[in-house]
Amino acid sequence: MNASELIDTARLMLAPGKGLLAMDESTPTCNERFASLGIPQTEASRRAWRELIITTPRLADSISGVILYDETIRQRCTDGTPFVKLLNDAGIVVGIKVDTGAKPLAGHAGEKITEGLDGLRERLQGYSAIGARFAKWRAVISIGPGLPSTACIAANAHALARYAALCQEAGLVPIVEPEVLMMGGHTLQGCAEVSMQVLHEVFEQLYVQGVLLEGMVLKPNMLLPGLNCSHQDSLDEVADATVTVLLRALPAALAGVAFLSGGQSAELASARLNAMSQRHKWRLPWALTFSFARAIQQPALEIWRGGAANVMQAQRALGHRAACNSAAQQGTYSAAMEGMGNAINDV
Ligand code: 13P
């Protein structure tokens, strides 16, 4: 492990005013999102969508790094330029999703364990040779009656830590993503209790496996009430609860935190990150930013719908969301920025 190289990459990923763009949907997930909008579920469509994203004008103003999928990291733009070269030339760090998905956890109905450790050392070497400098592994934890189980938390935390150690051995910065899902009727307090338990176990396992905290990024969920909870807390309540748990559970040596969006609306994800920056940035020992997929891509995908004539308008929408989240990272986002998509991208 080359510690200073890992630390330098993590710093680039967490550059002030920037965040990460997750475009690493597996083929089934990408196809599912395309199907709901009537977009053909083909390799050509997926390539065209990913080209649209990475050729968005001035993307690098707000985006420090993108997370790609195995299919995407090998693809090229229409003019033949490899995606990885285009991103490197723009100063955007390339990352890669390396887990192979969440599978049912034996003996624990309704719970999942993320797989992909077999052969990971060799796959990481391959991705590093193509140009990846960081990686991502996502574990999912559900809240429900009797859930999550100790077994689910322990197994996922262990896998995340083993993945992270392998990444650092290969010179890649690991993004460690233990996602507590929004599905359910639980309260904000319920999410706080489970998130605290999960984060404690994850950092315990990272310690056991000897992972360098300064050379990794945590990708947690924001603390939110369940989608079916009758009481939806305010921006400030969400911001305060999230920061309280992170401060209690995360070591100060950690390089940074980059939130997933988890199915929130694009505007709410920006507003909640902004509230955290405005209210708490001064007391955080680590960088705090975004690593959104849906909250950056979805509005643009709904405009594109597979149509070549919609590319520029979709890129404006994508650039706008990236700019809103860049502002939110700095605590300068406001609702007034919404509805100004064209103006923001044209300045
Ligand atoms: P969302 O922002 O859509 O939750 O996706 C983030 C991600 O990378 C999921 O692994």
| Ligands present | 1,3-dihydroxyacetonephosphate
CATH architecture: Alpha-Beta Barrel
CATH fold annotation: TIM Barrel
Please report the first level of CATH classification, the CATH class. Answer: Alpha Beta
Write the layout of secondary structure elements.
Blueprint: H1 3-13, E1 19-22, H2 27-35, H3 43-54, E2 63-68, H4 70-73, H5 83-90, E3 93-97, E4 102-104, E5 112-114, H6 120-130, E6 134-141, H7 150-169, E7 173-180, H8 188-208, E8 217-218, H9 235-249, E9 256-259, H10 266-280, E10 287-292, H11 294-304, H12 311-330, H13 341-346
Parallel strand pairs: 1-2, 1-10, 2-3, 3-6, 6-7, 7-8, 8-9, 9-10
Antiparallel strand pairs: 4-5
Bound molecules: 1,3-dihydroxyacetonephosphate.
1,3-dihydroxyacetonephosphate binds at residues 22, 138, 177, 260-262, 292-295.
Question: Would you mind describing this structure in some detail?
Answer:
The chain has about 350 residues and is α/β, with parallel strands linked by helices. It has a single domain, classed as TIM Barrel. The protein has 13 helices and 10 strands. It has an 8-stranded parallel barrel with strand order 1-2-3-6-7-8-9-10, surrounded by 7 helices. A two-stranded antiparallel ribbon has the order 4-5. Strand 8, helix 9 and strand 9 form a beta-alpha-beta unit. Helix 7 crosses helix 8, helix 10 runs parallel beside helix 12 and helix 11 packs antiparallel against helix 12. The termini are far apart. About 50% of the residues are buried. The C terminus is likely disordered. The site of 1,3-dihydroxyacetonephosphate has 10 residues, from helix 11. Keywords: Glycolysis, Lyase. One of its GO terms (molecular function) is fructose-bisphosphate aldolase activity.
